[in-house]
Amino acid sequence: MDWKKSFFLLLISLSGLLSAQKKSEKDIWSGTYLVNEINNGASRVTDTLVIARIKDADPNEIPAKEKSDLVRWFMTSKRDGGKDEITVKRFLFDAKNNRDAYKEFGWTDLHKAGKMNCIDGGHFFICQTQPGTSVTFGKDEKYFTKTGVFGIWLHYGIVELEKSKT
Asked: According to a count of CB atoms within 10 Å of the terminal CB, is the N or C end of the chain lower?
């Protein structure tokens, strides 16, 4: 085989790899999570959540501000028998269009550094950071996350989540 043909085949192989890499973004959310309610320093498992990647949102069916991130997951609770399936999406972060859901919590710099990622389910959100991190909410409130995964439910509060190994 001559060098031109070899170079051409190498170029095609590399472009295929780069294209596949771009399409196969690492999914940090899919899995099963134990929900640990923390009461007076004591922790107990109160639910199990299942999160799985689903088809991307249809850009024609969502608000214009959400079109910069179409990735979606579904989430179900084993406590309610899986009857309620909720669609969740990543916190909106579109610096070009000045949309930053992390800003309200003071987490923009953490997100930019790859140290804070959150998904939103409407009345709750779940975040991942480094295990053993003290997370600050606003100026006064702090939460220590042992596992690095925590959730906040409206009218309920903070829970610690632990991703199941199975």
From this structure: C
Q: Match 């190994």 to its residue by tokens.
A: 165
DSSP 6: H
Q: How far apart are CA 27 and CA 7, in angstroms?
A: 34
Helix (H/G/I), strand (E/B), else coil: 25: coil
Q: How far, in Å, CA of 71 to CA of 105, rounded?
A: 22
CB 44 within 8 A of CB 34: no
Backbone angles phi, psi at 21, to 5 degrees: -60, -45
Alpha helix ranges (H) inside 24-123: 108-112
H or E stretch at 17: helix 3-23
pTM over cut 0.90: no
Q: Tell me, what amino acid is at 69?
A: D
Question: 29 and 53 in contact (C-beta within 8 Å)?
Answer: yes
pLDDT in tens, 50-87: 999 999 999 999 999 899 999 999 999 988 787 788 99
